[in-house]
Request: fold
Amino acid sequence: MLAVMPDAPSSSPPPSRPTVLLDCDPGHDDAIAIVTAARHTDLVGITTVAGNAPLERTTHNALVMRDLLGIDVPVHSGAARPLVRDPVFAVDVHGSSGLDGADLPAPTTPLDGTDAARFIAATVRSTEDVWLVPTGPLTNIALAMRIAPDIIDRVRGVSLMGGGSFGNRTATGEFNIWADPEAAHVVFDSGVDLTMAGLDVTHQFLATAERVERVRAAAGALATVLADLMVFFSAIYRERHDDGALLGGAVHDPLAVLAITHPDVFGSVRRRVDVETHGVLTRGMTVIDERLLRSRPAPNCTVLTSVDADTAFELILDAITHFTT
Reply:
């Protein structure tokens, strides 16, 4: 049974609120990441990228989420395609809209800009200790690093959802990395402080039926939308996996946010991680160096290995409840 902790979502006080720029491709789990970041961080911007759906749809969905939350945060659209490859979308998981399964209102606030890479660069240059939190393909982040390499030394770090020791688009390639492995290589090879919420940890955090009903019980427009989205998302996950393999959709993206707001919720290891860009069978693979050899390369990434799923859910439920009207 899921533990119920209405009074305190974490046994220890949360750290100070980090400053975050969220780069996303909403996407059911991206929508939950937006809610989580709006509640638990100082959210200074949202940028969108093509991934789960074409850029027009992911941007539309980000604007819908901003309106539902009633937050005054700029939204800038970005890359409509990977650096060098043709775009591929995850319509088989998220539907043609990127957020199939819920009755979404039309956005009422305008887009703030259409050059996410320059917005990212300007934000990092003007704001101290910004965390970049990408939950889609890493195209915008790579473009920002290319046009403004000075931001690599200014950014606090990059906490991303992607990768892992196994894949979901292929046997070795997780979708976000596989969709634009060249961009992922730029980011992983940049020298920036990296945190990776890969499939190994995100498959431990599921939208089970019980959790979905607790979201719905929060009542209000936001809770209803998110519960409906999670019902659709979880049904797709169960259909796509062997019977009993997953009891609900893997809620990947908010873990990249919680990794920096509540790091005590996770287990992690420091590892060297590189991205395969050329392999026929291994395109988009995040190659995690697990060797014990003294001569192995120095680590460049904090790899999340485990999550206290009940506590993570309480933190997300707290965020949803906070914005429910």
Observations:
- Residues 21 and 44 are 6 Å apart (CA to CA).
- The longest strand covers residues 266-275.
- Residues 1-14 have pLDDT under 50 and may be disordered.
- The first helix runs from residue 28 to 40.
